[in-house]
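[recover] target loaded
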């Protein structure tokens, strides 16, 4: 099966440390395809699937203290502009040293490996090269799985609902202490929908959380900064289409918003930050 994936992120961060203030805004539009090939059923009942991404495209626009940065990536071809001036163009051999650092964030998106899926749809584990395993284990700190839905071990009739609880240990650049954030992802089976390929089962997702007074730390450049998060709240919605005959997800769309405030001490100066982000994601099974 081949899926087309598109993820759009928008984020704004405002930070004040001592008398210094800074603001950064960014938008990221990422598109790529993934090929999933079933390999074998394991002894524990999980299904081993070979995950192969390709045709990676990304556009990043950032506005911050240094001005405006615009970067486009097509697989490993990168063009980056700073305030309209071309700083990197790998196709023309410009800024190749800088490009090597920029590619570090792209490499993990292009790696292939094995994912072991439980019958519910949750990912039980990964196999493959260590960078592939590390990358996906880190991503699962932010979400449940690549499909955003996991089914209970019982038939679900139209109108029935269930809730999956996920424990998130990260918020942006911050690692959260204790239990972190526990999110209730509530699903409902809606009325079946008619498509050109027949009827599909439809599901919806709603999630909202509201936390206060969380502690954690930010580790950047080997320097760890303790933080407190007086306010953290996120909401999410989504819809899914599932082909029961083929036993696979046909499409998924989702949207989420996150806001959190944080307090910290940097080099003896107290500081505070405010983070607002939004994400839209779509996943669609391509005809073959």
């Amino acid at each position: 099966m081949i899926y087309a994936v598109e993820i759009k992120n928008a984020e704004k961060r405002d930070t004040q440390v001592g008398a210094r203030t800074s603001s950064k805004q960014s938008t990221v539009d990422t598109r790529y395809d993934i090929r999933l090939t079933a390999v074998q059923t394991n002894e524990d009942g999980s299904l081993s699937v070979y995950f192969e991404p390709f045709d990676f495209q990304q556009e990043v626009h950032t506005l911050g203290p240094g001005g405006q940065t615009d970067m486009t990536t097509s697989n490993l071809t990168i063009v980056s502009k700073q305030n309209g001036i071309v700083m990197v163009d790998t196709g023309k051999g410009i800024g190749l040293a800088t490009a090597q650092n920029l590619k570090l964030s792209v490499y993990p998106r292009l790696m292939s490996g094995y994912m072991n899926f439980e019958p519910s749809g949750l990912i039980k584990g990964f196999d493959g090269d260590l960078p592939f395993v590390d990358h996906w284990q880190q991503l699962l700190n932010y979400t449940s799985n690549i499909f955003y839905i996991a089914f209970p071990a019982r038939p679900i009739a139209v109108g029935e609902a269930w809730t999956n609880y996920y424990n998130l240990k990260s918020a942006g650049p911050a690692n959260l202490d204790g239990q972190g954030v526990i999110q209730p992802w509530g699903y409902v089976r809606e009325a079946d929908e008619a498509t050109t390929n027949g009827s599909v089962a439809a599901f919806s997702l709603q999630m909202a959380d509201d936390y206060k007074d969380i502690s954690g730390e930010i580790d950047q450049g080997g320097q760890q900064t303790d933080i407190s998060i007086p306010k953290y709240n996120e909401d999410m919605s989504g819809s899914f289409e599932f082909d029961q005959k083929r036993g696979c997800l046909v499409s998924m769309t989702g949207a989420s918003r996150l806001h959190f405030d944080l307090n910290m001490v940097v080099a003896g100066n107290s500081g505070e930050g405010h983070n607002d982000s939004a994400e839209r994601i779509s996943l669609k099974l391509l005809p073959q």
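[recover] notes: The radius of gyration is 21 Å.
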